[in-house]
Amino acid sequence: MSEKDVIKETRPRMDTVIEDFRRKLATVRTGRAVVSLLDTVMVDYYGTMTPLNQMASVHAPEPQMLTVQPWDQSQLGAVEKAIRTTDLGLNPSNDGKLVRIPIPPLTEERRKQLAKQVHDIAEDHRTAVRNIRRDANDRLKKMLKDKTISEDAERDGLDEIQRLTNNYITKIDELSKTKEQEITSV
C-alpha cells in the first residue's frame, strides 16, 4: 500500500460526507414547499417506524402546499400525527383521502433558527471531513513508521490530503451559504 492508495480511499469518504450534507440541507425548510422537506418524517406503520416516503406519495401541487396520500388509507391519522410531531412547525389537515400541509411563510425568528440549524449541520460535516483527514494522516504516519513509504512520500501524501480537506470544507461552506441565503431571502 502506498500514499496514493490512502488518498484514493480518502476522496470517496469525503464525497460521502458532502452527499450526506446535501441530503440534510434538503430537509431544512425554506419558504417554499419541497417534497424532500418530509424525508425525515417517520410514521408508526403497524408498530414499525417507517419513513413517510416509503408508505405514501408526497407531492407539491402549489408553492405553499404539500399533499401526502398514503397507499393504505387507514394510515391517514398516523401520517397526520407523525407530521404534526416533527420539529418542522407544520400543521397538516386530513380530508379523508389525503393529508394537506400548508407551508406557512417563515417568520424572521424562524428564519434565524433555520439559518443556525444549517450552520450546525455544516459544522458537523466539517468535523466529519477533518476526522477523515486525521484517519488518513495517521495511516500515512504509521506507514512511515513501518518504513513502507519514504519521508518525502509521506509529506506529499499529507499535503495532498490537506488540499482535499480544504476543497471539501470549501464545498460545505458554499452549500451552507447558498442554503442560508435561500432561507433568509423573503
Describe this structure in words.
There is one protein chain. This protein is of the alpha+beta class and 186 residues long. 57% of the residues lie in helices and 15% in strands. It has helices at residues 3-26, 76-85, 108-145, 151-184, and strands spanning 42-45, 48-51, 56-62, 65-70, 93-94, 99-102. A four-stranded antiparallel beta sheet has the order 3-4-6-5, covered by helices on one side. Strand 1 and strand 2 form a beta hairpin. Helix 1 packs parallel to helix 4 (151-184) and helix 3 packs antiparallel against helix 4. The longest helix has 38 residues, at 108-145. The protein is elongated.
Give the helix/strand class. Answer: alpha+beta
Order of strands in the sheet with the most strands?
3-4-6-5
For the termini, the CA-CA separation is 53 Å
Average pLDDT number: 89
Helix-strand blueprint:
Layout: H1 3-26, E1 42-45, E2 48-51, E3 56-62, E4 65-70, H2 76-85, E5 93-94, E6 99-102, H3 108-145, H4 151-184
Antiparallel strand pairs: 1-2, 3-4, 4-6, 5-6
Helix pairs in contact: 1-3, 1-4, 3-4
List keywords for this structure.
alpha+beta; Topoisomerase I, Chain A, domain 4; Gyrase A, domain 2; 2 domains; two-stranded antiparallel ribbon
